[in-house]
Amino acid sequence: MTARSDIEAITERIRERSRASRELYLERIEQAAGRGVHRSVLSCGNLAHGFAACAPLEKTELAGDTVPNLGIITSYNDMLSAHQPFETFPQLIKQAAREAGGIAQVAGGVPAMCDGVTQGQPGMELSLFSRDVIAMAAAVGLSHNMFDAAVFLGVCDKIVPGLVIAALSFGHLPAVFIPAGPMTSGLPNDEKAKVRQLFAEGKVGRAELLEAESKSYHGPGTCTFYGTANSNQMLMEIMGLHTPGASFVNPGTPLRDALTKEAAKRALAITALGNAYTPVGRMIDERSIVNGVVGLHATGGSTNHTIHLIAMAAAAGIRLTWQDISELSDITPLLARVYPNGLADVNHFHAAGGLGFLIRELLDAGLLHGDVQTVWGEGLRPYAVEAKLGADGAVQREAAPEQSGDEKVLAPFARAFQPNGGLKVLSGNVGHAVIKTSAVKPERRFIEAPAVVLDSQQALNDAFKAGELDRDFVAVIRFQGPRANGMPELHKLTTILGILQDRGHKVALVTDGRMSGASGKVPAAIHVTPEALEGGVIGKICDGDMIRLDAEKGTLEVFVPEAELKARKVPLIDLTENEYGFGRELFAGFRQMAGRADEGARAFGLGA
Questions:
Q1: Are 485 and 578 a contacting pair, CB within 8 Å?
Q2: What is the pTM assigned to this prediction?
Q3: Which residues bind [4Fe-4S] cluster (predicted)?
Q4: Where in the chain is the domain with CATH 3.50.30.80?
């Protein structure tokens, strides 16, 4: 099924812009694919090292060129709830590979950090760059040239984008992404948020706060709100990198295990040794990227992906821009309300019909390219399904329900929550920025107020405690960009600004830092580019300057005469506190090489 003409036009513009870099990329992966089964090019010494730890039969099979070998890249660790379920996945995958007549080896592990643990802590300044580290670590695992396909075990914020970049860097190999699923529902997210506000106001203590947080984040699996982790899973499915219906099945269930084994078998089925060879670098094209952006808008997904999708696309030679993302937002309706842009969690979304329902609605409306290639085969229509466990223990699929199970959570296209997407790109004399509008009430999407300029989250927290912020204002938090301190997420601001807004004040945030998928009810212009450290206008704003943020019109302005703005200098501030401790000294090179947020904030070139 072809997409609507306006979707086709944006896709064609991306295709034309990307033509040279995409052709070069495809030429390179064709060269890699042309070498055949890669173990055949290894010397006997190379190969002996590669299968030294295998069982005798596996050694015999790997010595030839006809048995497919599946590389497993895993982000397992048992501290983080989202990744703890991966502990058992390699054995399931190896069992499935044997059943399918292949072999599987753990090719390597990648780090997985949790922004929820590091929020407001020094370690958060490593978060964005961990994406690039993950891409490089996965590349090290695959560099042994032992594999005919790869499966990638990852869920959360920077992990999946990093793994996608790595997969596309080995674009001649088929790649299947295998999720772990969300934890079961705990304390509702809105109740947790209320306790956080009470704590910030000094009305409850740390014990009550920890109890609420522990009831919310209570078991294995991803957090249940619709942040970057769950946006990742949506993207992997709508871009065809998951098997259909795999994203939001809880861990530790028979269906989850069945989906994992099925994904491993599918990866083996699409190698160059068979008749359905599906190299990921050819599979993911401009249409796949546009489908991902449309899915992000339709679900009110994470603002982080305005950075990550650009870097992911670049890894395949595709040049995506914020302008593309913004124009797709204008024509994509919001069909999902999952916290923070609703009261439901991702389990409620899945129960209401989930991605199968959403994909069908978008396909029927012509908002998705239905003719893409996926790991499941030709076309996206097979993803408009619900995965269930059959009587024989295998995965069975049924057509997605015709009606939403709860239209307060998941709306049909005809009754969308709003006519445009949950993300918006802002432009003006401050630069370019991103705002998540899906959780912001319409009456809050315009604000004109004086600036309160600060250089850290802690400075705003101190001003709040000192009673200096009981008024209308726009908090300008600068020197938080990729080159300044790694562009951390600034969620310590969310609670404070939410309290002030609840008191009746008009407040907003403008920052060159990030707020991610948990961006909530306060209007926040984030990812401001150019950043302060690069001489961006955000660094020239002074206390009291009037700022206008208009999320409906897509503008961000500071009311200072152009001549005066040009004459102002960005102040020199001491950033040495951001340069050491918690491993930050090891990331000095990343900070120096980091690109702009609207170019993917990447620390290395990716062919675009």
A1: yes
A2: 0.94
A3: 156, 223
A4: 423-573
CA distance 22 to 218: 44
Mean pLDDT, rounded, for 472-489: 94
Strand partners, 63: none
pLDDT of residue 605: 67
The binding site for [4Fe-4S] cluster comprises: 156, 223
**Is the C-alpha dihedral spanning 259, 261, 264, 268 positive or negative?**
negative
Q: CB–CB of 603/590 below 8 Å? A: yes
Q: State both tokens at 234.
A: 């949506």
CB neighbours of 133 closer than 8 A, spacing ≥ 6?
A: 110, 111, 162
Class of domain 423-573: alpha beta
CA distance 2 to 371: 7
Nearest to 151 by CA among 182, 190, 178, 126: 178
Mean pLDDT of the chain, nearest integer: 92
Evaluated on CA atoms 481, 485, 489, 494, the torsion sign reads: negative
Cα dist. 476→11, 111, 566 in Å?
Answer: 35, 32, 19
What tokens appear for 419 in the block? 């006519």
* Neighbour-count burial for 269-308, b at 16+ CB within 10 Å, e otherwise: bbbbbeeebbbbbbbbbbbbbbbbbbbbbbbbbbbbbbbb
Count of Cβ atoms closer than 10 Å to residue 32 Cβ: 15
Q: Is the dihedral of CA 43, 46, 49, 51 positive or negative?
A: negative
